[in-house]
Every structure is written in C-alpha cells, then in structure tokens.
C-alpha cells in the first residue's frame, strides 16, 4: 500500500466530458495504471475536473514534463505527484479576474506568454484564474498589461499567500467532525454548534466582488442569507455572515479549513466554538495589528505550518495564531516586524487575550513601502465603493412594517415605478438571474391610480438582497426603485428636494432627466402622482436643483425638505434625516385598492418613504394614528366616531340606540388614552367571549381587536343597508376597499367561517341595543327583488399567475353569487386551507368573440338566418363538446350527441323560498331570460326550475352558476334534458358526523380542486355526498381530509358512481 501511494499523481484541467476510458487510453503508454478516481465531476462551480491516478512505477521527470505540454481533449494537462504538492506563491503567481466561460486556459497561456514563461494556468472558476510564471520578473510585467482578452479587460492582482495547485486534495475535508477539529486546535466544543447554520467569514479583501464570494461559498450548500460589512480589525478586509439552509452544509464549510479563493484564504468560524482558556505553548498572540490574515500567514509559515488564525476580537483587536509545533511558536514570538510593520507578539494566555492593550508606537519616522502601497490601494478602493453605493438607497429599519401572511409573503422586496400591467410572470422573468419570485402583491392609492408599490416575495433572503442591488435599473423603459420591504428610505435633507405640482403626464424618467442636467441623481422617489423626492449626489447640486421651475413644458414647485412649509404641514425629521409624519399612516393590506388617506397619510403632496404597514387602524395603542381630525370620508368631516373626546359611539348611533337596562358595571374604559363608551365596551366583551376559540382573534393585540370591531360598527352606522346584506355580500363590501374600512389587513387574516361569525355577532349586538324599527330588516327578511345597491368604485383582483391586474366591476345586484377561482385554491396534503372571501362579481359579455375568418354582420330584428346566428351556434356547439369532454363523457358519444337546439337551462336544488322572480333576476346577468317555469324536483325540500334564454351562448354562460351557494343551498345548473356521466377515478364519497350540510362539505372540499359534480344519496341520517373532481390529483388530496371547516369529522373514500 505504501508503494502505491508513492506513485500516485494528480491530473488537473480535465474536461467535464472526459470519461475514465478516455484518460486510461491516453495514459496507456506511460505505465500500468493500478488506481483511478475522478473528482469534481458534478461540481457546478469548477469548469473542469481532476483525477488521482496510481501507477505501478513512478513517472520519470521527462515524462512528467512532457505530459504537462500535451493537450487532452483540447485542454493542456497539469500533472504533479501527490508526494510533492506545488503551490501558487506570491513571488511567482498572479490572479486574473473578471473572466467568463468563453476564455479558456489556452487563451490565457497565449495571452501571458508575451511577458514571460508560463509554468501553469489553472481556472478554478469561470470568473478567475491563476497564472504561475517561472521567474519573478514576469510578475511586474503581467501587472502592467493593458491588452484586452477576447474583448475583456482582465483585472490582474497579486497572490497574497501560498495557494495549493490541487483543486481538491485526496482528503477534501481537513477534519472528520467538529469534535475532532476542536480537539486538534484546542477549541472548546459545544454540542449546540452541530446545529448552527450561520458562520462568520473573515479576511475578505475589500476589492473582492461580493457576488463572487457568495458563489464560492455556495459550493457547500444552499445559502439563504448573506451580509458583508467592513472588518473592525483590518481596514483592508471585510467580514461576512453566511447562513446555510441546513446545519450539515455549515459543518462542511467549517471543517474544510481555510478557503482559498482568488489568491487569498478566507477563515471560517462557528460562533459557538471559542478558543480554549488554557495556556498553550503552540499559540501566540499578536497585539493590536492592522495586518491582513494573509500577511500574518505568510510570515509565520516561514517558521512552521500555521494551523489556525483567529481574528474576531473587535474590542482589543488581538490575533490568535496557532502553529504546528512549540518551536515554531517560540520562533514566531521573537518576530518584531511582519510585512514591514512593527508588531508585538506574546505567548498565548486567556488573560492576556482579553486584557486591554494599546497600539504600538513606532520610532521609525518613515512609512514602510508596503504601507504606502496599501494607502494608495485603499484610496482606489474607496472610490470604487463610492461609485457602487451611488446605486444603493440609504435605508433604515422600518419598525412599522407589517406582513399580512408571512407564510406566503416571505423575504419581500418593495419595487416602485414598475409598469401598470406588469404581473408575476414579468417580474419572475426579469429577476430570474438573481432569484425566484414566488409571490406578488400590489398596493395602490386607489384602483385606477398609476402610482403604486409592488411587493415581491423571494425564496431566500439572499435573493431578495441581491435584487435590491438592481436599484435604478430599467424594466420596460422604467427606472425601478428597489429596497427591502422592512426598510424605509432615509431622505437626507442636505441632498434631497421635494418636487410638487406633478401630473400624470410627467413620468419619473422626465423628472430624472431634468435634474440630471444639473448633476448626478441618486434616486427619484415618487409615492404619489402629485409629488416626488429627488436626491442629488452632492450638496452643491441641491442648491441648483431648488431653482428648477419646469419639468418639460409643465411648471413645478421645488422646496427643501427642511422648509418651513413642510414643518407647518406636520412633517418632522429625526437626526438621520428620515421623513416622519405626525399622523402615521396605515395602508390597507388587501391586494386591491386602499383609501388614499389611509395609504399616504394626512399631509398631501408629501412623500413618506415606504409607507408604514402596521394594521393599527385609526386608533393604535399609543393614540390616534390613522389620519387628521378633519378626515373627509364616508363618516363625514367629524371623523367616524363623532364629536367629543369621550364619545366612542357617534351621535348617529347614540341617537338611535337605547342603552341596556340597568347600570353598566365598572367605570369608563380607556384605550390609547381615550375613553370608550359602556356600549362599545359591552360589544367588545361579547365578541371576546364568543370568539374565544378563534386563534386568529386571540393572537391580535387588544388595540387591533378593538380597531377591527370599531370599523365594522362604523359600517353599520354610515351605511344602513349593510345590515340587510347576507354574509357573503358583507364580506364583499368590506374587501372592496373604497368604503372607509381601514382594518382590511386584519380582517383578511381570518378564515371565511370566522369572518361570518364575527359579522353575525356584531350585527346581533347592534340590533339588540337599537330602537325597534330603526334599522333595516335583516338579510333573511329583506326583499331580494328590490333594486340592489351598487357598490362604489372597483376592486383590483390580483392572482399569482396573471400577468396583469384584472379590474372587476361589481354587479348592480347584491344577490350576485360568488364565483370560484381555481387559482385561489391551494392544495394541501393534510389540512386544506380555509376558503378565501368571495371576490367581487364581474360582468361578462353576452356576445361571443368572432374568429378571424368570420365576418360580424349586424342585422336588425331577429338573428335567424344571420351571421350572428351561425356564430352563436358554432360557438355553443364547440363549447358544449369541450365541456362534455372535461366532465368525463365519452368523446365518441359526445360527438354523436345532438345538444338541445333550444337554450333551456335547468336549475335544481333551489330552496323552497326561491321564487321565479328571484331566479330570473339571478340569471339575468348572462342574458335575456324569456321565461322561468317550475318543474318537478327529485330532491326533497327543494325546487327545480327551467329557464329559457334568448341564445344558446347565453344559456352556456349561465352554467357558471353551477355549484354556487344560493340562499344557503348549493344549486346545480345544467342544460335541460341532459345527463351527467361521472368519471371512474375522480369520484369520492363523503360522510360526516353531526348535522349533514352540503354547503359545509362543498366549502371544505373545494379547496382541493375544482368540483364538477355533486350529489347527495342515502336516507336521512346516512347521507353520502358524492363529489366528482376535474383532476385526479384533487381527488387524491381530498381523501386526506378528516375535518370540515365547521369542526365536524368527516371521512372521504373512493366511490364507484356507476354502481349506484
């Protein structure tokens, strides 16, 4: 075995496509091969792979040198014996950076042979390479090269320490385990370190690209977070905190030892593993030095192998160096200078390490040459960093940021100035190089506003931080403003000006171009149409920016952020320059619109930075937070709660409500420094008692609970017909976003049954404390045939997979039933999510869209014999066949089936109280209903009605009401005299304990997927609900559901509908 190890050789720079047979055939003339092993074949970071090959006899020196000049599959081999490991040294090597995949090793050989004999070229990654020369004189010439290489200007830097030419050693991990490393390096072992995922990385040169460091560390596993900052112990270095997805990945990186990268070595530390408190003869302390780890390593390596360097002391700035032997440590302790700098080195002891020390005073009046070179390099690095920071926004932590659902909206980034029609797919395509966009939500001042903010969710926090570096980049000709969602922009009053009197015709780019004529612009932040903040790069340009009078052909008003005008409007500034408002804002967290006052605050034309996002409503725990006292909205100019500091119930409510008989217990209640009336306190006690089992309600703070109930009460007061709506209509009205309801972000956190329960509790209490006859009748007593109310404004409905927002206008009838959206249904293997509140109904066109080859001919009177008739018949026939195929029917049979020529629709399972007028009004949205007749019902306690439409297309569109909840029952809508043929593998049967309810079963199982058929069979007490899903995967998911949304247990099994 020992003889075999002596003849083992390292072969580098092998192409990824090379096989073992290829290399064995190539080496057959050089000796008998007894062992072969490929490495790095699956490594995506390294563009080549290596091999360890064992020969029966040692290769002669001539053969080894000859092999180094040979090309194997168009790549020059690098061969070395594992017994004599070669290195890239600072005296003979350089690092070439900013390369790409098109530059191969042969290109580098040809390029650098002009300045000297090249011994070796190695490209560990696509973006950098090592060049080793045979003499030191070639180094200076290489550093001064200005020639381009395939159109790229290489950036050449020196190698800072000895770097092994082996991309991976025979033993890739230096230590077997954390305990092994602790025992060998005198570290204090902590079992909790086995589960640590965050590591400290030190000795990162200031001129190193951050993204390249992250890519290198990604070799050990997926990185979910990364943060780099300047080192406290060395001005030439940075440190970083890397967080891996799993502890195993962090352990692999920590056990690897020093990480050689681009000519230097990064040191990795686990915060739970500190150096021993025992004295060690193998360890020394370098007191208060500003040297880099590479300079310390190179000097100490001359006396012995360096095993460990610890540079994490940010208090005394001491450095721990552990060497292989005691003699080496003794020799190092005698050193007086390292890299031209005077140093003080002492033997290690824990007491000495933590004892405060003072900087060494040098008696030499001349600066060392290396220090002068460092100072010059540091000035150059600072200039580069300043240019990079030009694109970064100055931000601070936004303590008022609120995430409505951290499970779905995680690692969020806020993007301003994006296009009005850019959806999830557009952002996903634009940011695909930096991360995966997994979700999107948008907030606007109102639904038709051209200004809004888009919140993008990413898979990891690292991806979100990378995207923030794209600030001021262009997407669809728009300059984006990007920052983390939990950060707010710090507007420096010395650099920023406020631009007012803008219009929709003035774009952000117009503002940017106008002020760029004066000087460099860092950013233009425009949270509203009328005003924007422009930040100049230098103070001297701000004074000139104040003199701007026009942007294009439009007059604008320019003022400083510290002007008296802003102070009078309630604007204040803290020491950091963050713009503040005396009345904090509270945006609605719904995906649709929000009221303008609640979104942008009380002060007009004053940008607020990222709008605070805590759902505190108009009354937070520290007092009023929603808007000015004179807020003009649905509640009138006096505010929603009426005049007087102690009146929590407005005059309208106090005048129409009687206090409960008997004295109210306790004194006046206080919240946020204001008094709450006894009636409001009684309502809160009632809601708390009945919502005790609701976890979403209990998790809210007392102030948030009160604000939610308080705003719902305001809807009852300011909009009396709110009490006449059914539960679905109430929810739809609240989520519309234009009715003064400011607690939408909290209300949408509740499940659909919980929302209905809360509305019912509040309405019952409100009616019980009001004068009889003073309120409209409840939903069950109101006449549904009367003209329904029209909801104001529109609702912007955003879906995850849509490319643009869909503007859905509410129907003019409150009896319109909710429309299910398959995109809103999430599959879950164990427990299905609660259904979302029903979206606002939308109008649908009553006429088909003709194809390109059809001519639309408008003829007065009857459509018989016209082109419209032919188009309608063609469309209805094609749609009917498509629907028949989806529902599991036999295609061949469907082709032979003659669909009814007359547009008759059958509506079954209607409640007994449903009238012909109600059903006609319900279906009138789809077209003209010529007549409604009642037919014999096959379902007990229900009605069946037949409707005739004017056209077949209208009848087909009416099928959308199939399996919708109407007056507490799930109705079935089909073509008259047609039979449904269930599928064979997508049908399940559901039984449940407790009262049987089709509505509860449907609401629970619709979360698994689209249901195409529903039927109840069996006798009362033994009912079975048969459900047929559109997809087989939905039926599989439904079999795992064991509870309904109302809490009753249920059981779902596969059901053979053909046997019943």
Summarize the structure.
Residues 7-84, 92-162, 197-280, 426-487, 903-978 form the RRM domain. This protein is α+β, with helices and mostly antiparallel strands and 1060 residues long.
Tally of structural domains: 7
Large-scale geometry = elongated
Give the name of the CATH architecture of the largest domain. Answer: 2-Layer Sandwich
Q: Within the largest sheet, what's the order of strands?
A: 14-15-13-17-16
SS summary, helix count: 31
Task: Output the keywords.
single chain, 1060 residues, alpha+beta, Alpha-Beta Plaits, 7 domains, 5-stranded antiparallel sheet, 4-stranded antiparallel sheet, 31 helices, 25% helix
Task: Explain the layout of strands and helices.
Layout: H1 2-6, E1 8-14, H2 20-26, E2 33-39, E3 49-55, H3 61-68, E4 71-72, E5 75-76, E6 78-81, E7 87-88, E8 93-97, H4 105-112, E9 118-125, E10 128-133, H5 137-143, E11 155-158, E12 163-164, H6 178-185, E13 198-205, H7 210-217, E14 223-230, E15 237-244, H8 247-255, E16 259-261, E17 264-269, E18 280-287, H9 293-301, E19 306-310, E20 319-323, H10 326-333, E21 337-338, E22 341-342, E23 344-348, H11 350-354, H12 369-389, E24 395-397, E25 412-416, H13 424-430, E26 437-444, E27 452-458, H14 461-468, E28 474-475, E29 478-479, E30 481-484, E31 487-489, E32 496-500, H15 508-516, E33 521-525, E34 532-536, H16 539-545, E35 550-551, E36 554-555, E37 557-560, H17 564-568, E38 571-573, E39 579-581, H18 596-600, E40 619-620, E41 623-624, H19 651-656, E42 669-671, E43 674-676, H20 678-690, H21 695-698, H22 702-718, H23 727-734, H24 744-747, H25 752-768, E44 795-797, E45 806-808, H26 867-886, H27 891-896, E46 904-910, H28 916-923, E47 929-935, E48 943-949, H29 952-958, E49 965-966, E50 969-970, E51 972-975, ...
Antiparallel strand pairs: 1-3, 1-6, 2-3, 4-5, 7-12, 8-10, 8-11, 9-10, 13-15, 13-17, 14-15, 16-17, 18-20, 18-23, 19-20, 21-22, 24-31, 25-27, 25-30, 26-27, 28-29, 32-34, 32-37, 33-34, 35-36, 38-39, 40-41, 42-43, 44-45, 46-48, 46-51, 47-48, 49-50, 52-54, 52-55, 53-54
Helix pairs in contact: 20-22, 20-25, 22-25, 23-25
